[in-house]
Amino acid sequence: MFYRHAYVSACERSPLTAVNACAYFVARDGGKPVAVMPAYLQTAANPLRRLHEVYPEAAGEPALLSHTWHCYDAHVPATAEVLPRLLDCMIRTASMLGARWCGFLNVQRGNALSQALRAAGLPARHLTDRWATGLTTYEHYLAGLSLRARANLRRNERRSAEAGVTVEALPVDHASLDEITLLCVKTASRFENNGFHPGTTFAEFVTALGDLAQVIEVRQHGRLVAAGVCLVDATRFHTWICGVDYAVNGSYSPYGALFAESVRLAIRLGLPTLEGGRGNAAFKRRHGLRPHHLDAVLFRV
């Protein structure tokens, strides 16, 4: 998803992370592209705060980084063949751009890129986890949960209906993106993730994704109390970004209603994997998602 043309184009036209320059690496074999990687020069490359916790020596210094923070799945095809040349090109490009560091963010531990970076002698540092699970039917999903978690989801569905809540999945061009932006910004500020959903560009970015995005709106008597912007690719449904207002009338969780509809929508779309994104580990573990360790691999230019 994060390497589709629409997504990368949106990153350049309406960046969600402050970037100073974009670089696009293409490896070719006999003229045929075998690997691509976008990278971005970032001066304050730490909207989720985790990078400078694991790389304190890089704090405040410009870095050329693979993709942006809103991508949690760094990937380079044909890694074993192209990685040495890619690293050399990254270092030269970073030097030209005045970066002091370059490297990769959100590399899933144990995947092909992770193994190739380790083989190249580049140690990784744990950054965060992303959460995912497989899906078939909604009843099968519920059956895989603990008795308590299953009962909570069903009870929340009943209580939200009693409280006058409606849940609707919409294409991007029918969603209330201005309202959703405000709710996402407010939610991020509660977790000190200010700047992760810049209000001036978020709606433009989501609109540019077109059919690659789905929006879920949860409303109580017309008022938006939760919303999620979800991304879709061939096999995965990404619960990418959400906003929640917990000041509601009634004993229900708007986030719970949003999550349940996300699972249902993924199943309706026939996508076998639910990607739950990062953070909120306790909820996701309780609701059947499993962690995948994500590492950062930075090196000084």
Summarize this entry quickly:
The chain is of the alpha+beta class and 301 residues long. The protein is built from ten helices and eleven strands.
Query: How much of the residues is beta strand, in percent?
Result: 25-35%
Biggest sheet descriptor: 11 strands, mixed
Could you state the CATH homologous superfamily of the largest domain? Answer: Gcn5-related N-acetyltransferase (GNAT)
What's the arrangement of strands in the largest beta sheet? 1-2-3-4-11-5-10-9-8-7-6
- Quickly count the domains: 2
The number of E-state strands comes to 11
Number of separate helices = 10
Q: Could you give the distance between the termini?
A: 29 Å
The dominant shape is: globular
CATH topology of the largest domain: Aminopeptidase
The CATH class assignment of the largest domain is Alpha Beta
The ordered H/E elements are HEEHEHEHEHHEHHEEEHEHE
Structural class based on helices, strands and sheet pairing: alpha+beta
What's the oligomerization state?
single chain
The CATH architecture assignment of the largest domain turns out to be 3-Layer(aba) Sandwich
In round numbers, the mean pLDDT is 92
Poorly predicted runs:
none
Give the helix level as a range of percent. 25-40%
Computed CA radius of gyration, to the nearest angstrom: 20 Å
